[in-house]
Amino acid sequence: MISILLSATFGAQILRIAIPYVLAALGGAITERSGVVDLALEAKLLFGAFAAAAVGHATSSPMAGLAAGIAAGALVAGVQIGLALWLAADQVIVGVALNLLALAGTRFLLQLLFDEGSNSPYTPGFGDAVLGNPIAWLALVAAIAVPLALRHTRWGLRLRAAGDRPEALAAVGVSATRTRLFAALVGGALAGAGGAQLSLSVNGFSADMSGGRGYIALAMVILAGWRPAWAAIACVGVALGESLRIYFQVADVAIPRELAPLVPYVLTLVVLVVLGGKRRPPPASLGK
Amino acid sequence: MRIRRLVTLLVGVNVLLIAIGWIVVPPPTTKPGSGLRVGLVFDIGGKNDKSFNEAAYRGLERARTELGVDVTYIEPSEGADRESALRTLAARGLDLVIGVGFIFGPDLEHLAAKFPAVKFAGIDYSPSEGVGTIANLAGLRFREHEGSFVVGAIAGMLTRTRTVGFVGGMKIPLIRKFEAGYEAGVLHTCPTCRVVSAYAGTEPKAFADPSLGEELAAAQYGQGADLIFHAAGNTGDGVFAAARERGLRAIGVDSDQYDNAPCCVVTSMVKAVDVAVVDIIKDVAAKRFRPGIHELGLAERGVGFIADERNRDLLPLEVVEQARVIAAQIVAGAIQVPDR
Questions:
Q1: C-alpha separations of A224 from A193, A211, B88, B105 in Å
Q2: How far apart are CA B88 and CA B95, in angstroms?
Q3: Could you list the residue range(s) of the whole structural domain that residue B324 is in?
Q4: Same-domain check for residues B45 and B134
């Protein structure tokens, strides 16, 4: 039992499960810190997964698939910003609408492109080896770079200003809207890469395959007090919990079946309560 | 200003959608037939799921071309849509309305009482607590445990590591039937083998999470399993991905799933949903409709396994022969197969 939990395969499994969560959470943290509510993470994952599978299938190249996933995530973010800032629609409603659109839209596109109701045809992937998977490296680099960029670069400073005090940004002649748009595009691209991992890892897209991961990633962002590094750690906690749940079942560990699904969330809460420090407020102008 | 932008945008979207609709939706075809009107509502996955629903669709298409019945179908998206889809068809006064999937059970019972002139049929239907036979409702069920026993026996003969896996979708009695039959089958041909099993979850979305399916399979292969049988809908696609990655073997479910991973799919436990659909339509056409539960097992060719020229390299002839002997023994009652 213990030997399993310390094994490399178990570690690799945690990392594989964590990739989409971490990328979505980092994307969500960027977008939210710029002042835009990012409920649409689920849509970015789902469209990213679909685009990666469709382009990966057409070109037989997982790299092209990944690029398409990233582009699709950014595209969803562009639409989100267009509706939320250009048309000043309610940001929560925009997010929910985009998630519903993703659910039905990807199925519609499946039907249109492949004449299929729920699955896309075979798409080559990067394989199960975490170290050989460029999306894993992207997640790692992003988990380090995003917190640093937010804190130490001019882009990060402006982005945080757009989220906290957009009028201060306006006073120095920088457009808050443009800053938010750019932030959301970067955030959407990351989430789209997370979606690409979902479909490329199982060699194809299937309807509703994001399964609520976007919502969980957003919950981790909020629990982590909008700090991207902590959000990424919380996501690894979710992945650890999911891996434990899988191993409890496969290794026949006697814990009540109804409790097993709770493991990821309980574990994450414990991690955040113990290590996360005091509760952080959201960006002051979030959603405004 | 904003209003004008909004109107412009909406008009644009509207034009676009109408254009798409024009291209995508073919004009309705009307064809003279026997006059029998049949409606069918699909489960999660829709008519082209390469599995359970697709088998029902094949049956419906066959009834349309061979029997000349007039068919309508609906692919609902979620939850309450299912009930209203059935209701819509029933309210049109069709002769027969079919719900594909266990999940339609309570809706069918409720609507059968409301529309006594319409005949209803449910694939995988099992009566709710305290509900007896309803005069205009037939349940078409399969003895999946029998077919699963046979593929389990095949797994027991093929495994080299003496460990095989089972990945289930949603944890419900229906999927437990697959697991129970499979496990008994494995132990029948390989009494010292170990069966590791896992389920994806307890909600319908457990049938639609291939990433989770891959991790469940990866964990089982990591535990030494060299062959996994899945009964998990789209979640099973992840099982095939994990098998492909490792060059290990898997067993498909419901339809012939060889194409999902030609390297690795040894056989599939098939469920003749198409036959059941055609048969119930024939019954209604001939005014032979019988309410209550109709069960199809190995004897009725309602379940079975695939052995053809495509999977010959993965499934040796002597194993196929053994499996046929076991199937015959089940039909003859010489082997009792547990269903839970």
A1: 22, 22, 47, 43
A2: 13
A3: 144-271+307-332
A4: yes
Q: A165 CA to chain B: closest CA distance, Å?
A: 24
- For residue range B100-155, list pLDDT tens digits in order: 998 899 999 999 999 999 999 999 998 888 888 899 999 999 999 999 999 999 99
pLDDT at B179 over 50: yes
Please give the ipTM for the structure prediction.
0.85
Q: Is A264 on the interface with B (CB under 8 A)?
A: no
Task: Check residue B242 and give its pLDDT.
Answer: 95
pLDDT of residue B31: 47
The C-alpha atoms of residue A198 and residue A16 are separated, in whole angstroms, by: 10
Q: How far lies A254's CA from each of A102, A257, B29, B261, in Å?
A: 39, 8, 58, 34
Domain boundaries in chain A? 20-214
> By C-alpha distance, which of B74, B72, B66, B73 is closest to B34?
B66
In contact, A280 and A226? CB cutoff 8 Å: yes
Burial class (CB in 10 A: 0-12, 13-18, 19+), A188: buried
Output A67 or A224, whichever has higher pLDDT.
A67
* This prediction's pTM: 0.85
Give the Cα separation of B193 and B185 in Å (integer). 11
Q: Do the beta carbons of residue B157 and residue B206 sit within 8 Å? A: no
Give me the residues of B, 158-217, that contact A with CB < 8 A.
165, 171, 196-199, 201-202, 205, 208-216
Using CB atoms, pick whichever of B77, B214, B234 lies closest to residue A104. B77
Distance CA A230, CA A224 (A): 5
Whether B25 maps to a domain, the answer reads no
Q: CA B229 to CA B151: how far, in whole Å?
A: 8
On the question of pLDDT at B163 being above 50, the answer is yes
Which residues, in sequence order, are CB contacts of B148 under 8 Å at separation 6+? B177, B178, B179, B180, B181, B182, B185, B229, B231, B269
Please report the pLDDT score of residue B27 as a whole number: 44
Tokens of B100: 């594909």
How many distinct structural domains can be found in chain B? Answer: 2
Measured in angstroms, the CA of A249 and the nearest CA of chain B are apart by 5
> Could you tell me where the DSSP H helices lie in chain B?
2-24, 52-67, 80-91, 105-114, 144-158, 173-189, 210-222, 235-246, 273-285, 317-332
Scanning B253-282 for CB atoms below 8 A from A yields none
Label residue B30 by pLDDT band (50, 70, 90): very low
Same domain, B51 and B135: yes
Q: CATH number of the domain at B102, please.
A: 3.40.50.2300
Contacts of A256 in chain B (CB under 8 A): none
B46 touches chain A (CB under 8 A): yes
